[in-house]
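Subgroup meeting minutes
Present: P.N., E.W., G.H.
Scribe: E.W.

1. P.N. recapped why we're keeping a running log of single-chain structure predictions: easier to compare across weeks, and new members can see raw inputs and outputs side by side.
2. G.H. added today's entry (89 aa).
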Amino acid sequence: MRAEEAKCAAEKLGIQPPIMFGLHDQLRMGEGYGPVHDQLNTMREKVKALFTTLKPDVVITWGPSGWTGHHDHRLVSTVVTEVFQSQVG
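Output recorded in log:
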C-alpha cells in the first residue's frame, strides 16, 4: 500500500517514481539475526548500485535518529551514510 502511495505522490508531483527495494518492514527483526543480516546486505548492495548508476552530487537521507526514531529510518540512515562514506575518497 505504501509503495503505491509513494508512486501516486511522485506522479502528482511530476517527479521520477520512487526506487523501491522491496525489503520487509523492520528487516524481519523478529526472525533472528540471519534474516536481518541478509536484508541489511541487500540494502547495502542496492544503495551501492544506485550510487554507481546515478552518480549523485547530493544524497539526502534520514539523520541518525531516523527523524521519528523509527527502526527502519535509522537503519536506512546508517546504511546510506556507511555506503556513501566508503565511496568518498
